[in-house]
TrEMBL record:
Lineage: Bacteria, Bacillati, Mycoplasmatota, Mollicutes, Candidatus Izemoplasmatales
One record GO biological process: tRNA threonylcarbamoyladenosine modification
Cofactor info, note text: Binds 1 Fe(2+) ion per subunit.
GO molecular function, one term: iron ion binding
Cofactor(s) needed for function: Fe(2+)
Enzyme Commission number(s) from the entry: 2.3.1.234
Name under which the protein is recorded: tRNA N6-adenosine threonylcarbamoyltransferase
Cellular compartments annotated: Cytoplasm
InterPro entries listed in its UniProt record: ATPase_NBD, Gcp-like_dom, KAE1/TsaD, TsaD
Function according to Swiss-Prot or TrEMBL: Required for the formation of a threonylcarbamoyl group on adenosine at position 37 (t(6)A37) in tRNAs that read codons beginning with adenine. Is involved in the transfer of the threonylcarbamoyl moiety of threonylcarbamoyl-AMP (TC-AMP) to the N6 group of A37, together with TsaE and TsaB. TsaD likely plays a direct catalytic role in this reaction.
Keyword Acyltransferase tagged: yes
Cellular component per GO, a single term: cytoplasm
Positions contributing to substrate binding: V133, V134, S135, G136, G137, D166, G179, D183, N271
Domain of life of the native organism: Bacteria
Length: 330
């Protein structure tokens, strides 16, 4: 089965083609990071316009690289939400037009299902599994007892972890997106700054707004005293506290649900500190982490999720499919 997939929920325009929900034949990602950098974050209106400029070219490039005639494509999958509505609509409409013109069935896919299924690229998932979803918009612990069955055990009560990373980076003037820069500096520093307790007790829920505000206040206080912030130590302290809570709760969920596999998903899954801690501390189940190139937004993961969704639910979408900025994962 050949799937063509489209992702445009935020600031990456991406089209991919895969075979049998495993093999990636092409995965073209056009990033807008350079466009948004000067504003310190994604500007939704500009993002939509950039998607419109790039989408046709990205489609053509993905078809060219995969060397697949359009007639061989069995399914079109597209991110229907959640995300920036203007951005989503460009991908959804491009996918609908392609599916309609070539008479191919269409499925709308949840963006987070895509991140989760980035772990199924060239690998089999084993159930029950626990997935830690850590992205710019989401922080969730999910239990999967079978394919395409998502039970949310807990989630963030306020900021997503990627959002907190980006805010910390901005506070110390590190640019956008800050996550990878904080990660790099954290490796060079020592966790010398005290951080607040962010454990939220015995629940599987998270909260990152407190530690974010703590870092902002700390930096302001240091500046008021005319002292210098030791940036790499600050990054190390923040990263240590955040990765501790992510790994602790994951370990507890693995134990409580007798998981066979643990996977991570989303942009922050690229975090080296998090990967190291998982490697050291989660040793009694099979651990799968996505390849770096499939951690941040890309269409390949949407196609793999679309493949399993179609196999499990057997339901396709029609030409009334629409984007949704907010959408539950079910
Ligand atoms: O999943 P993603 O590409 O987009 C969303 O769906 O949100 O995640 C983007 C987020 C950004 O907040 C970015 O700073 C963060 O992932 N990120 C990282 C790292 N690489 C990307 N955060 C921490 N460490 C990293 N290495
Ligand atoms: Zn994402």
């Amino acid at each position: 089965m050949i799937v063509l997939s489209v992702e445009s929920s935020c600031d990456e325009t991406s089209v991919s083609i895969q075979r049998d929900g495993k093999v990636i034949l092409s995965n073209v990602v056009l990033s807008q990071i350079d466009v948004h950098k000067q504003y310190g974050g994604v500007v939704p209106e500009i993002a939509s316009r950039e998607h419109i400029k790039g989408i046709t070219m990205v489609f053509e490039e993905a078809l060219e690289q995969a060397q697949i005639p359009k007639d061989d494509i069995d399914l079109v999958a597209v991110t229907k939400g959640p995300g920036l509505i203007g951005s989503l609509l460009v991908g959804v409409n491009a996918a609908k037009a392609f599916a309609f013109a070539n008479q191919i069935p269409l499925v709308g896919v949840h963006h987070i299902a895509g991140h989760i299924y980035s772990n199924a690229i060239e690998r089999d998932l084993a159930f029950p599994l626990i997935c830690l979803v850590v992205s710019g918009g989401h922080t969730e612990l999910i239990l999967m007892e079978e394919h395409y069955d998502f039970q949310k055990l807990g989630e963030t009560m306020d900021d997503a972890v990627g959002e907190a990373y980006d805010k910390v980076a901005r506070t110390v003037g590190l640019g956008y997106p800050g996550g990878p820069i904080v990660d790099q500096l954290a490796i060079e520093g020592q966790p010398t700054y005290p951080m607040p307790d962010i454990s939220m007790g015995d629940t599987f829920d998270f909260s990152f707004s407190g530690i974010k505000s703590h870092v902002i206040n700390l930096v302001h206080n240091i500046h008021q005293r005319n002292e210098e912030v030791h940036v790499s130590n600050l990054c190390a302290s923040f990263q240590e506290a955040v990765t501790d809570v992510l790994v602790d709760k994951s370990k507890r969920a693995i134990e409580q649900y007798d998981a066979k596999m643990f996977i991570i998903a989303g942009g922050v899954a690229a975090n080296k500190g998090l990967r190291k801690k998982i490697d050291e501390q989660i040793t009694d189940v099979e651990v799968v982490v996505p390849q770096f190139k499939y951690c941040t937004d890309n269409a390949a993961m949407i196609g793999i999720a679309g493949y399993y969704q179609y196999k499990k639910i057997q339901k396709t979408d029609d030409m009334t499919l629409n984007g949704a900025s907010r959408l539950r994962l079910e």
